[in-house]
Amino acid sequence: MVVKAVRGRRRYIAFRLSVSFRRADLTSRLRFYMDDRGPYVVQCSNGWAIVECRPEEVKKTVLVMSMIDPFSVSLLTSGTIISLRRKYPNLQKSHVSVGVK
């Protein structure tokens, strides 16, 4: 596991968005508006998404998500994915294991 001192802190944002969005689609649109080192889509399915970003990018990420999908709603920002999934069980249900970034 990489320590925070090397990698830096991350924030995880839970979103509700249009059901039509898929992970690859959302990733490409985020990269269009932000640089390649921008937000990372941890998961996206069934109208739920978790997006990872740096703490200083939280507001911009929420703004860009609203540009990508005007119906998207930022639900909660957290320092851990686990707390988001505990708060919103649908994120746990729609979770699919993914490979390394």
Give a description of the structure.
The chain is α+β, with helices and mostly antiparallel strands. The chain has helices spanning 4-7, 23-33, 58-68, 81-87, 89-93, and strands at residues 11-16, 40-45, 48-53, 73-78. It has a four-stranded antiparallel sheet, sandwiched between helices. Strand 2 (40-45) and strand 3 form a beta hairpin. It is globular. It starts with a helix and ends in an 8-residue tail after the last helix.
How is the secondary structure organized here?
Blueprint: H1 4-7, E1 11-16, H2 23-33, E2 40-45, E3 48-53, H3 58-68, E4 73-78, H4 81-87, H5 89-93
Antiparallel strand pairs: 1-3, 1-4, 2-3
Helix pairs in contact: 2-3
Query: What's the count of strands?
Result: 4
- Which segments are poorly predicted (pLDDT under 50) over 5 or more consecutive residues? 97-101
Please write the string of helix (H) and strand (E) elements.
HEHEEHEHH
Largest sheet: 4 strands, antiparallel
The averaged pLDDT comes out at: 87
Strand content: 15-25%
What percentage of residues falls in helices of 4 or more residues?
A: 25-40%
Gyration radius over CA:
13 Å
| Tertiary shape | globular
Q: Tally the helices.
A: 5
Taking the alpha carbons of the first and last residues, their distance comes to: 13 Å
What is the spatial order of strands in the main beta sheet?
2-3-1-4
Class by helix and strand content? Answer: alpha+beta
